[in-house]
Amino acid sequence: MLNLVLFGPPGAGKGTQSQKLIDKYNLIHLSTGDILRSEIAKGTELGLRAKTLMDQGILVPDEVVIGMIDSKLKENKAAAGFIFDGFPRTVPQAVALDALLAENNTAIACMIALEVNEEELTRRLLLRGQTSGRPDDQDEALVRKRVQEYNTKTAPVAGYYAEQGKFYGINGIGEIDEIFDNTCNIIDKYLSQPQVG
Ligand code: B4P
How far is it, in rounded angstroms, from Cα 69 to Cα 187? Predict the structure, then answer.
């Protein structure tokens, strides 16, 4: 199984690169942001709870997103692998993901982090806000709040994977296809190594 974590601040290009990676490597895309927005659209109780937090640029509780990922893994037991996009976003989420994958005798292959500065993130998200209809993309203070949440709660997750020797950072500024090629190079290098177990 090929399990990848696509990592980076809001607007770094995780969703954009995920779409290209799932086609090339035949993986299942698990975006906690997309799953939460679908719960909001359906008007479920979980969605209503999450919306209040997401509209403020705050992370939803760990147990909510961990439960969502657990059920998606169970629904897709025959998958060739997964791209985790926007998850894990805290160290407890990363620990829980390792445990869930271990239950299925698998593990994260690598974390690929898209590195983009705050000014470019803000520019991209406000631009997307003009067409996405996402309330969290439309207000500069809210966009900056999301980046601040990332810096305090999410950035430490990179260290968690670095300790396991699984962290790879790449420049997330430039042409989408060029960033995609650099991402594929990391994955292909991993796949060319003899796999343990
Ligand atoms: P997400 O849906 O994960 O949204 P995001 O961080 O804004 O990134 P996204 O993937 O959508 O954008 P992308 O970088 O591809 O999270 C939303 C909210 O949900 C969070 O704030 C939180 O409240 C909650 N949540 C989600 N997961 C959670 C978790 N695990 N725990 C707790 N809470 C959670 O692209 C952005 C824009 O940049 C696009 O318009 C794209 O076209 C553009 N772009 C991409 N690459 C580009 C490039 N190379 N050059 C120029 N533009 C580019």
Answer: 22
Residue pLDDT, tens place only, 86-132: 999 999 999 999 999 999 899 999 999 999 999 999 999 999 999 98
Instruction: Name the pTM for this structure.
Output: 0.94
Q: Which residues of 56-65 are buried (b: 16+ CB within 10 A; e: fewer)?
A: ebebbebebb
Question: pLDDT tens for residues 45-55?
Answer: 999 999 999 99
Q: Is residue 197 part of a domain?
A: no
Query: Can 37 be counted among the known catalytic residues?
Result: no
83 in a domain, yes or no? yes
User: Does a structural domain hold residue 103?
Assistant: yes
In the reported structure, the alpha carbon of residue 57 is separated from the centroid of ligand 1 by a whole-number distance in angstroms of 12
Q: Is 127 helix (H, G, I), strand (E, B) or coil?
A: helix
Question: What is the atom index within ligand 1 of the atom nearest the CA of 18?
Answer: 15
